[in-house]
Every structure is written in C-alpha cells, then in structure tokens.
C-alpha cells in the first residue's frame, strides 16, 4: 500500500496537510476520527494499517448505538502524519474546509479467523474488519463491513454490542467547534 493517490490529489505548496514520510509505527496501531467541514460535513475515520491510515468518510459520524449502521465511504490511504493534522485546507484545494481531530487513540484488530486474529490488511481486503477502539470519546468494538465494491467502496460502521455500547448517547454532538479552529488559524497567519 502506498499513498500515491493522496499525493496526486494535493498541491503541498498550497495545502497545510502533511506530505507524509513518517514510516515508524507506534507500539499499537493508532486510529483518528477527524471532523471535516468540507462542502459536506463528515467525519473521516482512519485506522493505521501497515504504515498508512486506511480511511473512510462517515457522513454521520460514528454511533455508540449498535442498531445504527453508519455509511462509511472508503477514501484513499492517508500518510501516518495525518493523524496529527488539524487546520484549514484552502479554497480550490481538494477537501477544502476545516479539519479538526475529533477523537484519537489506539486500536486493536479483533477480526476473527477460525479462532485466530486475521491480519488487518487481509481483513480490509476481505471487507470485514473488527476493531476495538481506545479513544477519548469512542471506545469498544466496531465492525466495518463492506457492502459495495468498486471504485468507491461502501462500508458500514457498526457499534458492536459490548459494555461500551450506549443507545442514548450521541457522541457527535460534543467537542471543540470547527469555528474555533478556523479562528485560531486566522490568528496565527
Ligand atoms: Mn474528509
């Protein structure tokens, strides 16, 4: 896996996004969820797999309710550095709009294959990837299930029914606002 598509879509003389280059991994793979106020507000869900961030755009963001299946559109792999990125992508650039880190942490691959853990890369390829997230807002098991293959893969992101499942809380209604980040960016420039 590489992030050539990621690079091809961006002009790094204009966007503050990282070019990539960090190859060293953490002890545990990381995940990040970035709230992205692009032409359509969405949440970018990213999981470290083999040195890159496998990525999905989740229009409604993650739910903690196992009954709510959230559409997750697979997007290009992003470089690991992207897990630290917050900022405003300027007008005219791919993904123009403000990006904030909404949640971040580590995760464990819990995809089962006959009693053993299936390799994350294989789970992605097979379209069935189970993870246990350890973030600030989002914790516990989530299932990623591919429902449509092709150029733009569609997946579902579903909370697994465990101790961290909670049908009453709505995690996407909290957090630092995008306006605050935009203002702070303006203050710095
Ligand atoms: Mn995005």
Keywords:
single chain, about 190 residues, mainly beta, eight-stranded antiparallel barrel, two-stranded antiparallel sheet, binds manganese (II) ion
Which stretches are poorly predicted, pLDDT < 50 over at least 5 residues? none
Biggest sheet strand line-up:
1-2-3-4-11-10-9-6
How large a portion of the residues is in β-strands, by DSSP E?
A: 35-45%
Q: Report the mean per-residue pLDDT as an integer.
A: 91
Order of helices and strands: HEEEEEEEEHEEEH
Give the beta-strand count: 11
Number of domains: 1
Number of helices: 3
How would you classify the helix and strand content by structural class?
mainly beta
Largest sheet: 8 strands, antiparallel, barrel
Radius of gyration: 16 Å
Task: Give the % helix.
Answer: 10-25%
Q: Spell out which ligands are present.
A: manganese (II) ion
First-to-last CA distance: 35 Å
Approximate shape: globular
How would you describe this protein?
β2 (41-49) and β3 form a beta hairpin. It is built from three helices and eleven strands; from the N terminus they run αββββββββαβββα. The protein has one domain (4-188). With 189 residues, it is mainly beta. Residues 36, 38, 42, 44, 57, 95 line the site of manganese (II) ion.
